[in-house]
Amino acid sequence: MGYEQAWLNYHQVKDQSFRKYLTGVYSLEEDAIICSGIRELTLAMEHMYAVTLPCDKGAAESGIHLRKNSEADLGQEGYHIYPEGPVFVIEGCTSQGILYGIFQLLRRLQTEVVAEEINDNKLPDNPLRMLNHWDNMDGSIERGYAGHSFFFKDNEVLVNERTLDYARLAASVGINGVVINNVNVKNAATFLITPRYFADLRKIQEIFASYGIKLFLSLNFAAPLELGGLQSADPASDTVKDWWTDKLKEVFQELPGFGGFLVKADSEGRPGPFTYGRTHAEGANMLADIISPYGGIIIWRCFVYNCRQDWRDLETDRARAGYDHFQPLDGAFRDNVILQIKNGPMDFQVREPVSPLFGGMKATNQILEVQIAQEYTGQQKHVCYLLPMFREILNFRTHCEQDKDTVGDLISGRTYGQKHGGMAAVINTGADENWTGHDLAAANWYGFGRLSFDRNLTAEEIAAEWVLLTFGSDPKAMAVVHGILMNSWNVYESYTSPLGIGWMVNPGYHYGPNVDGYEYDRWGTYHRADHRGLGVDRSSKGTGYATQYHEPNASLYETIDTCPEELLLFFHYVEYAHCLSSGKTLIQHIYDTHFEGADVVEATVKGWKGLEGILEPIAYERVLARLENQELHAKEWRDVVCSYFYRKSGIADERNRQIF
Ligand code: GCW
Question: Whose CA is nearest to atom 13 of ligand 1?
Answer without folding.
Answer: 303
